[in-house]
């Protein structure tokens, strides 16, 4: 179905519930015997959508970050910056990302892991632009402006920073 294998397991014991999991790329549906083909297809599509949303929320690995940064470079920066490595950093608490242009290495704050992918992409574009232009001048701003959600991501990150800075400490620390 829709390019994905679906294994349907009918059960006489099941009366109402439908469950699903994915094993080696195959969606396994456990369904009551009485379900029609149409109902099974509807459940399969719903579970496919749910599983893809769940996968999208899973934090990217360092390898996936490198692949994503290369794709973003090709799409928005003419493929000019080619990072050697991109990784998550648990050492960055004040910055969202950093670049070492001499080695082509990009590090993203691990705090970004739980943020939307478009925010992560904006930070990646920012760091990729530093592989072309070290400062934050007009040329740099023109590069990052090629990513359509730069302004939105900057506002999102400014809100997170504000909330972090203005959060009240837990009651146990206020005394």
From TrEMBL:
It comes from the Bacteria. It holds the Pfam family YgjP-like. Residues 91-147 form the YgjP-like metallopeptidase domain. CDD domains: M48_yhfN_like. This is YgjP-like metallopeptidase domain-containing protein. The lineage of its organism: Bacteria, Bacillati, Actinomycetota, Actinomycetes, Micrococcales.
């Amino acid at each position: 179905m829709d390019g994905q294998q679906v294994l349907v397991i009918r059960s006489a014991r099941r009366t109402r519930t439908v469950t699903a999991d994915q094993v080696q790329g195959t969606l396994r549906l456990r369904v009551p015997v009485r379900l029609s083909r149409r109902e099974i297809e509807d459940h399969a599509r719903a579970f496919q959508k749910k599983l893809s949303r769940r996968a999208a929320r899973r934090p990217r690995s360092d390898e996936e970050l490198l692949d994503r940064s290369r794709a973003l470079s090709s799409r928005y920066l003419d493929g000019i910056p080619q990072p050697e490595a991109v990784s998550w950093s648990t050492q960055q608490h004040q910055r969202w990302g950093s670049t070492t242009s001499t080695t082509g290495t990009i590090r993203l704050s691990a705090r970004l892991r739980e943020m939307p992918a478009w925010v992560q992409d904006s930070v990646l574009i920012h760091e990729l632009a530093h592989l072309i232009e070290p400062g934050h001048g007009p040329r740099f701003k023109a590069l990052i402006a090629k990513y359509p959600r730069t302004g939105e991501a900057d506002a999102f990150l400014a809100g997170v920073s504000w909330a972090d800075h203005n959060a009240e400490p837990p009651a146990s620390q206020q005394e």
